[in-house]
Each structure stands twice: as C-alpha cells, then as structure tokens.
Amino acid sequence: MTSSKGAKLVYRPIGLLGGVLAGVISGAVFKQVWKRVSNEDDAPDALQSEYRMREVVLAAALQGAIFAATKAAIDRAGARGFTKLTGSWPGD
Q: Which of 10, 32, 39, 75 is the most exposed place for a label (fewest CB within 10 A)?
C-alpha cells in the first residue's frame, strides 16, 4: 500500500500523459463536432474578422467543454487503473 503523498507522486507522470492524450482526443472530437454543427472544416479563430463574436465564443466554449469532459473521463479511468494496480487512490 502506498501513502497518499507517494501515490500522488507516482501517479503524476500518468496524469500528465493523460492530459496530453485528452488534448489529442478532444481536438479530434471537437473538429468532427464542429464540422457537423457548422458545415465548415475549421472553427473560427478569435482574430478572424469574418466571424461574428457569437460564433467565436460558441466554438471556444464547445471546445473547452469537450476537452474538460474528455480529460475528466481519462483522469478517472487512469485513477481507477492506478488504484487496481497499487491499492491507493492517487487523488486523496
């Protein structure tokens, strides 16, 4: 059994890898969702003048929500797997 502080330290690289994986997956998911919602290949960038403020903010909010949900799912799955291997929950 690992201590709480030790578990957090050991889990840190796993959490970092999960964050990178979440970024890659959520980016791909967002791109597909945006294509279906807007019929455009790319989401608007904040500095592109041809888009309205509403479109830019909506795209950013959707992208953030998808990333947050993906990251939470990956973090939770990683923590569960870590607990099965070590007997310690990495977040407490």
A: 39
